[in-house]
Write a structure and sequence with these properties.
Elements: E1 3-9, H1 15-27, E2 32-41, H2 50-81, E3 85-93, H3 95-106, E4 110-113, H4 121-126, H5 129-136, E5 141-143
Parallel strand pairs: 1-2, 1-4, 2-3, 4-5
Helix pairs in contact: 3-5
Length: 144
């Protein structure tokens, strides 16, 4: 049976911590697959004109392409070059909900994410995506 781990990256240089931890863990597991995930914060709820919605859809597709090229593809390439089975996924939505959905959809046994680095007032009051993920995830979450 293949063990699948979701590695959530946020596009910052700190993402190497998550990848390093995932590599170390995967090297100890036989037949491990790493799923590199990047979630672009996006809300489908907005009152816009049809023209604005068309522009938003185009912008959304551009964001996915950029995230894949700058974050996900290089991470997957480094993992596969090191001999690991790895795939990548980029989605829009609520970070915690989407990472959990990816884990459930792919049959992952664990999610690996970085700790929240932003210490804004909003983060302190409402909590971070990492905190929310830990609270709602259907599988164990490791925060590095």
């Amino acid at each position: 049976m293949t063990v699948k781990l979701v590695v959530g990256l946020d596009g910052t240089a700190d993402g190497e911590r998550e990848l390093s931890f995932a590599r170390d863990l995967a090297s100890k597991l036989e037949g491990c697959e790493l799923i590199v995930a990047f979630v672009i914060e996006w809300s489908p709820f907005s009152f816009q004109t049809p023209e604005e919605n068309a522009q938003r859809h185009k912008r959304r597709e551009e964001e996915i392409k950029i995230a894949r090229e700058r974050v996900v593809d290089p991470a997957v390439a480094s993992l596969t070059a090191a001999g690991f089975a790895a795939t990548g996924v980029v989605r829009h939505g609520d970070v915690a909900e989407v990472l959990n959905a990816i884990a459930v959809d792919k049959g992952a046994t664990q999610i690996i994410v970085g700790r929240a680095s932003a210490r804004s007032l909003a983060t302190r009051v409402f909590g971070s995506a990492t905190q929310k993920l830990v609270m709602l995830a259907d599988v164990p979450v490791t925060v590095v």
